[in-house]
Every structure is written in structure tokens, then in C-alpha cells.
Amino acid sequence: MQIYWTTIKEIIEETPQVKTFILHCPEDFTWEAGAHTHFALKGFNDGDAPNRNLVRHMSISTLPHEEGIGITTRIREQCSEFKSILKNMNVGDEVALFKTHSNIPLKREDKNIYLLSSGVGLATFRPIVLDYLNNTANVNKIYSLNVDSSKDFLFTPVFTTVSDKKITTQFVDNRTDYYEQVKNMAADPDGLYYVVGSDEFLRQNIAILRDHGVQPEQIMLDKHDHQLPEFLATNA
């Protein structure tokens, strides 16, 4: 396993609770839209076994041409050991990246794509939307739906409705309105449904989509292949 050590290039305060850490890109480090990585703090591998408290599975919220690896995360006042250390880190501090992979690349199959997310889960979709805006070929349209009770909606310059690009975005601040809209989206028999959020959020969305006739192969999750049956099995 290759570990890429790098440093923090910039820290962006997206909202009062959400920050994006822009990291310098190590030589030979590559990724694509929709990728995730293991983001680790200094000391995680000092002992005989990795300290899992200092490692998190994170989406990369930027594209390579943006000249920095973006890690976007919510840091509440009461938070984990990992987040407590992270919130006090500064530009120039060292971090590590490893096991970078993409489970949800943008599928260009001439279909409608629905991006369903909760809160900071939108970070996973930011590079996918930018990839689409740069090249709309073989995608009918994109519809992004995000629920965030804080009402501090993320990445609004990117997630905006652009009619001539056939992209529609919607933010809601409660689950009731959100799930009503998911039911409306599920009426598309050929759509592709990308879902990002907590495991509970995934299961709730999948249940609604499946109840409305969406097939498992139409649902894209940021999970490894061996994890998909747990969520997409017909009796899940």
C-alpha cells in the first residue's frame, strides 16, 4: 500500500461548521470525479497497527485541474478525536492519503442522472457535476437534490440550475420535503440514481426507490462491490 504524505495548502470555511482542506497534490497521485480516499493524520501509522482513530474515509471534492486535493468535512463543536485534531490544524501541516478509488464515476449512457445527498455528502457530487458541466456528452440531464437541516447549503456556485446545460439543483431543509421529491424522481423508469450519505440515509432512499420500481442496477452507491448486496438485496 502506497501512502502519500502531503501538506495542507489552504483551508476554506464553507459554512460555520464545514471546512474544505485543500492539499498539495503529491507526485503521481491521481483521481477521478467521484473518488474517495483514506485521509489520515500524523501518527496514524506509528505503532505496530494503524491507529484507526486517526483515519477517515473521505470523498475528494475537487477535480485534478483545480490544482489541489479537496477534503470537505463537517466539524461540530462536540466531535471525535479525529475532528478535534483536524479543526486545529493549519496550512503547512502534514497529512496522509492512501487507498484512493472511485465507485461512482459519471455514467454516460444517455440517461437522466439523479444525485441524492444529505448535508456534506454533496462534496462527493461536486466534482461529478463539474465533470458534467465541462462535457455534457451522453447524459440527458442531471438533477441534484440535497437535504440539509442547517440551511447552510454547500457549493451553491456549482449547484445551480443551468437550463442550457440541462442541470437542475434543489436544496431542502427537511426530510419530509426531501423524500416527497425522491418519490417524484423515482417515476423515471430509466434514470440512474446516485445516493451519498450515512448508511441509514442510503437505506431510506433505497427503500423508497425500490418501492417505486427502481431496480438495484439503477442505484449507484459509494460502496465497494462486496458491500453492495447488503444495501441493494431485494429483501434489504
UniProtKB/TrEMBL annotation:
Domain FAD-binding FR-type: 1-107
UniProt superkingdom: Bacteria
Gene3D superfamilies, per the entry: Nucleotide-binding domain of ferredoxin-NADP reductase (FNR) module, Translation factors
Gene Ontology molecular functions: oxidoreductase activity
The protein's name in its UniProt record: FAD-binding FR-type domain-containing protein
Organism: Lysinibacillus alkalisoli
